[in-house]
């Protein structure tokens, strides 16, 4: 599984301390390496600018800005530095002094406003080195005014933030603080030394995750991956080729080795949800499956489409006693159900069976969960709020809730949003950032539950199955249909195979 460690602000500080105090790095060296990494990563960008302005704060982030300004100047670019106040760190002071000698002058914020008023539209590339990831306080009126000016001005054709967008605080989302604590609307963020947990989900335009680029600067990242100093949060990278190859039928497959699953759902009038879930399983190569439903019409719906299918009207209790369940690897419960089935409360999931709870099978807070070692819940944000009795406005807030909920209930939870989050009962978690507006249609949750069942039925782990299912669904971005239905998305995925 392609995944990369994500570090919290505190963990990043610990790595910084480890590099300097234990491994003997000089802070000036690390700042210089950061500046060189950013410079080389954006060489094409610098060439587009008539002028480059760098706003430098008084901490380490400002020091990175000064180091970058020195490199840009030496490489022949027109660069100006403006400082909110003198730098307070030793390494920052070193590069601030160096820039003062080479550029001749470091402007004040008053100088910034004076030059900004005279500048032409779309003439300046702005580098934001005001505040680092450790800043969580409210902005001063002066900084708020400066950031608002940067955001609203047509002078700046591009805004690049170092490490994080200054003023950004995911824990303030939806709570009104961001109306007071403005943040830089970065066009991209250069994460230095570590991938930052607090940057996950940075968005200021609807359905648009702002690009973040990771630059290695020699930090002892691998040394830091231990249970004491690392909280096991990972960033998932798409694996589209593997997603396709894994579910392609093999020549030696028979109907059970190709994957088996049982689906329960589809209350009266909602039969389409469980049908779509099962179809996504079978049409993507599943070997054998069966639908059980409380609907009296389910057999006519299923057999009317395909006489080779199995369908039965039954209660969940009867379904859990179905001999077919003993032969299957995966059980999906929930698509098309209108309420949580009480029969699930306390049910002992048989060893070796993977249980997926979706839609109507997502419990309300207080509903007892089934018991087992391979249970995956797939709520969207509203269902997560109902499930936990808490409101969540960011991925970080959802994580804080789920990192207690999942080990306590021995379940995996996949939060479906513009950023997806999988939290595991062992305390590890995985983030998937790939907003896909083509999935914003009715039925894509049912589609996902069937795709998950397809991978789970092949004896893959839940984290592996989640990554592959999300990677496969990501192919829908290539659909020629501007607003495809869930059935059209499934058809396009089948064509890939």
UniProtKB/TrEMBL annotation:
<dbReference type="GO" id="GO:0052856">
    <property type="term" value="F:NAD(P)HX epimerase activity"/>
</dbReference>
<keyword id="KW-0511">Multifunctional enzyme</keyword>
<dbReference type="Pfam" id="PF03853">
    <property type="entry name" value="YjeF_N"/>
</dbReference>
<comment type="similarity">
    <text>In the N-terminal section; belongs to the NnrE/AIBP family.</text>
</comment>
<protein>
    <recommendedName>
        <fullName>Bifunctional NAD(P)H-hydrate repair enzyme</fullName>
        <ecNumber>4.2.1.136</ecNumber>
        <ecNumber>5.1.99.6</ecNumber>
    </recommendedName>
</protein>
<dbReference type="GO" id="GO:0005524">
    <property type="term" value="F:ATP binding"/>
</dbReference>
<dbReference type="GO" id="GO:0110051">
    <property type="term" value="P:metabolite repair"/>
</dbReference>
<dbReference type="InterPro" id="IPR030677">
    <property type="entry name" value="Nnr"/>
</dbReference>
<feature type="domain" description="YjeF C-terminal">
    <location>
        <begin position="238"/>
        <end position="497"/>
    </location>
</feature>
<keyword id="KW-0521">NADP</keyword>
<keyword id="KW-0413">Isomerase</keyword>
<keyword id="KW-0456">Lyase</keyword>
<comment type="function">
    <text>Bifunctional enzyme that catalyzes the epimerization of the S- and R-forms of NAD(P)HX and the dehydration of the S-form of NAD(P)HX at the expense of ADP, which is converted to AMP. This allows the repair of both epimers of NAD(P)HX, a damaged form of NAD(P)H that is a result of enzymatic or heat-dependent hydration.</text>
</comment>
<dbReference type="GO" id="GO:0052855">
    <property type="term" value="F:ADP-dependent NAD(P)H-hydrate dehydratase activity"/>
</dbReference>
<keyword id="KW-0630">Potassium</keyword>
<dbReference type="InterPro" id="IPR036652">
    <property type="entry name" value="YjeF_N_dom_sf"/>
</dbReference>
<comment type="similarity">
    <text>In the C-terminal section; belongs to the NnrD/CARKD family.</text>
</comment>
<keyword id="KW-0067">ATP-binding</keyword>
<feature type="domain" description="YjeF N-terminal">
    <location>
        <begin position="12"/>
        <end position="216"/>
    </location>
</feature>
<dbReference type="Pfam" id="PF01256">
    <property type="entry name" value="Carb_kinase"/>
</dbReference>
<keyword id="KW-0520">NAD</keyword>
<dbReference type="GO" id="GO:0046872">
    <property type="term" value="F:metal ion binding"/>
</dbReference>
<dbReference type="InterPro" id="IPR004443">
    <property type="entry name" value="YjeF_N_dom"/>
</dbReference>
<dbReference type="InterPro" id="IPR029056">
    <property type="entry name" value="Ribokinase-like"/>
</dbReference>
<keyword id="KW-0479">Metal-binding</keyword>
<dbReference type="InterPro" id="IPR000631">
    <property type="entry name" value="CARKD"/>
</dbReference>
<keyword id="KW-0547">Nucleotide-binding</keyword>
């Amino acid at each position: 599984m392609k995944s990369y460690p994500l570090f919290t602000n505190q963990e990043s500080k610990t790595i910084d301390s480890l590099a300097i105090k234990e491994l003997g790095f000089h802070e000036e060296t690390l700042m210089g390496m950061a500046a060189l990494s950013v410079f080389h990563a954006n060489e094409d960008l610098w060439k587009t600018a008539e002028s480059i302005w760098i706003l430098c704060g008084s901490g380490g982030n400002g020091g990175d800005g000064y180091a970058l300004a020195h490199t840009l100047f030496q490489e022949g670019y027109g660069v100006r530095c403006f400082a909110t106040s003198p730098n307070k760190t030793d390494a920052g002071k070193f590069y601030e002094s160096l820039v003062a000698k080479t550029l001749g002058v470091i402007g004040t914020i008053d100088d910034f406003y004076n030059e900004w008023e005279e500048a032409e539209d779309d003439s300046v590339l702005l580098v934001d080195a005001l505040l680092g990831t450790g800043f969580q306080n409210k902005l001063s009126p002066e900084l708020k005014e400066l950031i608002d000016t940067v955001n609203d001005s047509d002078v700046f054709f591009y805004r690049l933030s170092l490490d994080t967008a200054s003023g950004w605080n995911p824990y303030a989302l939806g709570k009104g603080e961001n109306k007071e604590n403005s943040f830089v609307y970065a066009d991209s963020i250069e994460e230095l030394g570590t991938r930052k947990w607090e940057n996950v989900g940075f968005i200021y335009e609807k359905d648009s995750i702002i690009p973040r680029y990771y630059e290695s600067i020699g930090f002892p990242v691998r040394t830091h991956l231990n249970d004491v100093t690392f909280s096991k949060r990972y960033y998932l990278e798409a694996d589209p080729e593997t997603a396709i190859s894994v579910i392609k039928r093999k020549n030696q497959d028979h109907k059970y080795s190709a994957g088996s699953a049982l689906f329960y759902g589809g209350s009266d009038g909602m039969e389409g949800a469980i049908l779509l879930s099962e179809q996504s399983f079978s049409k993507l190569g599943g070997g054998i499956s069966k639908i059980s439903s409380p609907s009296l019409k389910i057999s006519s719906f299923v057999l009317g489409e395909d006489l080779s299918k199995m369908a039965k009207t039954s209660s969940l209790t009867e379904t859990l006693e179905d001999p077919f369940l003993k032969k299957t690897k995966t059980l999906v419960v929930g698509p098309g159900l209108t309420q949580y089935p009480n029969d699930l409360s306390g049910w002992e999931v048989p060893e070796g069976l993977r249980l997926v709870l979706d839609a109507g099978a997502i419990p309300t807070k207080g509903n007892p969960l089934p018991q087992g070692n391979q249970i995956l819940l797939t709520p969207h944000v509203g269902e997560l709020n109902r499930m936990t009795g808490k409101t969540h406005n960011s991925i970080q807030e959802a994580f804080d809730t789920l990192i207690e909920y999942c080990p306590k209930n021995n379940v995996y939870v996949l939060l479906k949003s513009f950023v997806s989050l999988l939290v595991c009962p062992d305390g590890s978690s995985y983030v998937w950032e790939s907003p896909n507006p083509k999935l914003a249609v009715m039925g894509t949750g049912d589609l996902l539950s069937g795709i998950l069942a397809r991978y789970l039925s092949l004896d893959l782990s839940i984290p592996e199955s989640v990554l592959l299912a999300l990677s496969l669904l990501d192919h829908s971005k290539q659909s020629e249909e501007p607003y495809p239905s869930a059935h059209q998305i499934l058809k396009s995925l089948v064509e890939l195979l």
